[in-house]
Design a protein that fits this description.
single chain, 8 helices, 2 domains, PRTase-like, six-stranded parallel sheet, nucleotide biosynthesis, Rossmann fold, Pribosyltran_N, alpha/beta, ribose phosphate diphosphokinase activity, kinase activity, 16 strands, binds ribose-5-phosphate, 307 residues
Amino acid sequence: MMSETSTEAVLFALEPHSLFYSLCKKLALNPGFHSFRRFPDNESYLRIEASVKDKHCIILADLSHPDSKCLHLLFLAETLRELGAVSVGLVAPYLCYLRQDKRFVAGEAVTSRIFASLLSQHVDWLVTVDPHLHRYHSLNEVYSIPCRVVHGGSLLATWLATQQNILLVGPDAESEQWVAQVSELSGHPYVIGEKQRLGDREVVVTLPDLDAHQGCSVVIIDDVISSGHTLIQCIEALQKQQFDDVSCAAIHGIFVGEAEERLQERGIRKLVTTNSIPHHTNEMDLSESLVVPISESLDEIDELRKK
Ligand code: R5P
């Protein structure tokens, strides 16, 4: 919780989010509202409907499908500031634009770097959940504002705790950071596959020989489910080795287009995600894990203002 002398804080949701009221309650934040609509030519209209002068403002925004949300976010952050907010922080349970962390082919935009620089100009601090860090070791390599990261691994491990005879599978080398943590916390063994990405929606997943684990139920662990192709390929590789009881637990479920239907068609038994992105598969609640990093961010701003 924030200290008693702290400045009052107001929470805004960019779009309706299941974490909104639980964060207001757990952190004693005032709920803040704004209206937003599109003009016929798709330009944005925004109006703040709360008093924000001399208050800390926090924006809760899941940044999946970011291109349609980012101007809304910048207009909201800048209007809060113009109306007298003493600070504007961002809680982005899913943080976008991290996967293009390198210029793989001459001429490509390194969007992770550009996006981080843009966001750092408009908000004072950031709290997020398991950002997709691959070649970057920390968000501080690209963000110039204080960033705090929550890890959802313990929620996945708790979800798995009551289950027996489970093999955890990470589809690719990048997933090992999450799978290893969940394995350590839950006590279930794990294996890691190899993924070759041939295109946005074309991947090949190869798994090691799993004979020693025959009879186990499999839970695939990944950070993000986007198009679902990584999971589909992983399920197929498992089915080739006679593993038919396959579920998946992921931190962020974007579920682009028909991703979920395609996964059901392949016979996935259960799909669970955290509520970083609102979806009916959300079975793991992040609100408690967000309390400390948010209050620390607000306290840090208060400390800086006293200097
Ligand atoms: C990539 O390295 C991530 O960890 C996920 O495996 C990937 O983003 C999933 O994407 P998709 O569902 O489109 O295969």
